[in-house]
Each structure stands twice: as structure tokens, then as C-alpha cells.
Amino acid sequence: MTERRLTGVAARIDARIPRPEDFRSDLRGPGTAARAGTWLGVAFGVCFLTGLYSHLLQDPVARIPLPTGPARLYQVTQGVHVAAGTAAVPLLLVKLWSVFPRLFERPPRQPRRLVLHLLEKGSIALLVGAAVFQLVTGLANSAQWYPWSFGFRQAHFALAWVAVGSILLHVAVKLPAVRAALGAPLDRAPAAPGAPSRRTLLRLTGLSAVVAVVATTAAEVPGLRRLAVLAVRSGDGPQGVPVNRSAVAAGVAGVLEDPAWRLRVVGPDRTVELSLDDLRAMPQHEAVLPIACVEGWSASGTWGGVPLRDVVALVGATAEADVVVRSLQSRGAYRASTVPARWVAHEDSLLALTLAGEPLHPDHGYPCRLIAPARPGVLQTKWLREVEVVGA
Amino acid sequence: MKAARIALGGAGAAALAWGLLLLAGLGPQVLAVAVWAVGGIVGHDAVIAPLVVVVGALAAARVPGWLRPVLVGLLVVLGPLTLVAVPVLGRFGARVDNPTLLDRPYWAGYLAVVALALVVTAALALRRRPRPSAQP
Fold it and tell me: Fewest beta carbons less than 10 Å away: which of A77, A392, B23, B72?
């Protein structure tokens, strides 16, 4: 197939746009792209699976039972989610750099090849757009920065499927090239003595990923906390636990000290109202449970209170019933949450009244909050006013 | 390998279609999502990548070969780290009612990492520097 010939202005413009062969770095090429791409695929795969798990916890599907323990499960999966996404930043940048010249390939003229060319470029545009979107929105969300007008969770979830789908398609298209590249030696002889090699570049990419992960998420690993100079939380807070949403931000600061506060418990048999003293008079249970946020940070505390199952037993709940807990908050997407029956049955699922042996700090949900094992922090509803037995 | 490619491609197309369906379900928000996704492509292909190409071309023309690997290292480590640090360095999500959020001295920590990277780079560069030969 001959090179297509352009004339006039088009030819002059074309002459000014670089061609793939104008990019001279020996560090680029299939060897670099296949290896950085493999790591990137692993990082996105880990993000996708841990993200799917987090999504299922927040929007449960009845046919998919999720484990209620160990208590730190969500802390680990969500920490890994954020760490893998952070590691993906240098991997994606180096991967895109290694194939950047191909952006300047001229489209072929023959219609069938042109269609294939446009399909491939289109799928790569989807891949790059979705991948960059996921990393940018994920990192901004972890610092509670929302400079956009769409709902983060729904958009991040939808584009996760777009990203993973376009990655799988891309791998399917490129599999022979990937296998050939991984089978061939990585480096030819370096162009100039002492000049960087592809192996050096890939090692540096790995180092970059490690540095980024340690600087942002090492706060979750004991002993490494001080190295996490970019962590969104130092881990300090009232009663030793950081706060995601304060009482002021939730608009409940003025109503927490109301002596007329009662916890309304609604069940199939009857409805009861419990004062704080009523709750304190019930058998108390203590559990060490983490607040593990979707943003990737977590902190453990010793919580004390009444097991949720004991409270709903007062109104005739069965073991198969889910429970909805509702907050005093009048707005906010997370002012209520559903506790699936498997969690209700767990003795560590508490209507907590104390943290570290003291009454809850207002920012931790005084007078009474939900705390249960292996659940995202946003579902550990604070400032409760109502507990309702639903279903079954 | 053909079967593997067909399986991967089929799974990919299905996931992609599901994702686009979910996107369509977002209603009018789709426009803002599209702006950010296209903005990601433009931000990379029109800003970050050309910048790196220019830096690379300059280095290839001006910097001796023995110095280039350590400079590549500096760029590969500090470039992504700087992008990752933007949300905390700007403290855009900080709130007065919540002192437990974004509560570290981020600029100090970031500059400490940069300083450490520069020191390591300088030490490596000194070791790689070709010794002037003693012979006349």
C-alpha cells in the first residue's frame, strides 16, 4: 500500500505534524509498553475487584452473600484499592509515554483498514479517557475534593466498567504483540555508553510506584506512618479516631444534647422508644472495630454499646430480617443505611454509646451510632434516631 | 491463543457495553463525566506528554549520556508523585469544622521527598561521572 499523497494546505499541515519515526528515544517500543502495560493491567484489575466489593457492600445484591468478617476485611481491601490506584499513576504515564508516537500514525486510505484503524483508535481513546478519569477522580475523592458536578460514586463505578472493558479489548487485540515483546530480550545494546536502558526505565517506574504508595497510604501500616507525608489523615482525632463528617457539617450539632432524645425501634410486633439510660441499662458489649473509609484511610477504636440484635429482638425481629438505621441528619446521601441480616446477627454489630471508654464525641455520633465489622465507614451511620426492622 | 483472544475480547466488549449503559443511566450528568474523561485525554496527550517529549529532546541534545539515566530517574519518580500530591498540597477538600482531615504539613513533607530525591540523584551522578584520565 503506497503512502497517501496530500496536496496544497493539507500537505503543508501534514509536514508540520510529527510522524511516529520522528520520536527517537530507544526507551520506547513494544518491550517497554508490554511490561509497563502488564503491571498497569494488574493494578487496574486489583482496583476493579476491590472497587466492585466496596460497591456491593454499599448496594447489596441479595443473591451475593458477603462475608461479615474478619472485622478488618474492608480496611484491607479499600486500602489496597487506593494503593493500587496510586501505583497506577506512574505505570499509566510510562505506558502512555512508551506508545505516544503511535498517536501520530496517519490513517490508512483503504476503507476496510481505515475502519479497523478508527475502531482501534476509538477503543484506545475510551481506555485512556476512562483510565485517567478513574485515577484523577479517585485521588481527588480520597482528599474529599469534588471539583465536578456529577455524583462521584456512580460515575466512578460506570467508568470502572468502561476502563476494564476497554483494557480487556485492548489486550485481546494486542495479545500476539504482547507475547512477542515479552518473549524478546528487553534491551538492545544501549545507543550511547552510559545512556539509560529500558530495564532502568522500568525499574525506575516500579520505584516511582512504590514511592507514591508509601507517601500516600503507608499511614495504614504500623511503623510506616511517619513516612506517609502525603496521607490524607494523620490518624489523630477526638478519642483517637479521625472524623469523616463532623456534627457541624451534618447539620446536627444543635440537637444532640436534647434530653428528650429517644431511639425509636420499629419492628413487626411493636414499636418501642429507648432513652440513653434505657440503652445503658441493657447488657453492654465491647468490640475493637475499625472505621474504614472509602477514601482508603482507617483507624481502629474500642467501641462499647448494645448489640444491634438485642435491640431489634425487643420488637420481635427474626434472624432473617434486615435492619435500616436512620440518622438525625435531615440531608446527606448517607443519613440511613441498611444492615443485612448476616451483620445484624453478628455480636460485634453494635449500637455504640462509647468510644475508648467515654461517651461518644459529638463528631463520632453522640448519643448513639452504628458500628459493625467489615463495612465501609459511610455505612456506619451516626447520630441515630431510628432503627427499623425490614423484610423477612 | 485465538480462543483466549476471543474470550478476552468478548468479556471486554460486554464489560464496556455494561459501563456505557451505566453511564447512560446517569442522565444529564453524562455531559460532565464526558467533559472530565475527554479532559483527561487532552490533559495527557496535549499537555503532559508533549512537555515530557520536549524535556527529553532537550536532555538528549544538551546532557551528556552518563548523566541522563539519573535525570530520567528524577523525572519518573518526582513527576507522578507531584501529580498524586496535588489534592493534598492544595488542601482543596479542607473544612474548618473537621481538623482531622488533611491534617499533615504536606508542603514540608513533599519538599523533604524532593530534597531527598535531589540528594540521591546528585550522589548517583557523582559516582557515574567519568574520571578525567591521568594520561596527557
Answer: A392
DSSP code at position A20: G
CA–CA distance, A155 with A138 (Å, rounded to integer) = 11
Domain that holds residue A330: 239-390
A166 vs B16, B26, B85: nearest CB: B16
Q: Measured between alpha carbons, how far is A299 from A215 in angstroms, rounded to an integer?
A: 18
Q: Give residue-wise pLDDT tens across range A153-204.
A: 999 999 999 999 999 999 999 999 999 999 998 887 655 666 788 999 999 9
Q: Is the Cβ of B79 closer than 8 Å to some Cβ of chain A?
A: yes
Which chain A residues are Cβ-neighbours of B25 within 8 angstroms? Answer: 158
Q: Exposure pattern of A5-16 as b/e (b: 16+ CB <10 Å)?
A: eeeeeeeeeeee
Question: What is the chain A residue with the closest CA to B128?
Answer: A194
Q: Is residue A234 part of a domain?
A: no
Residues A329 and A252 in one domain: yes
> What's the Cα-to-Cα distance from A145 to each of A160, A373, B28, B69, rounded to whole Å?
19, 27, 22, 36
Q: What is the Cα A131 distance to its own chain's centre? A: 14
Last residue of a domain, one of A187, A203, A227: A227
State ipTM. Answer: 0.94
**Once rounded to an integer, what is the mean pLDDT over residues A89-95?**
98
B57-to-A22, B46, B101, B112 alpha-carbon distances in Å: 11, 16, 42, 29
- Tell me the CA distances in angstroms from A109 to A71, A114, A117, one per residue in order: 60, 6, 10
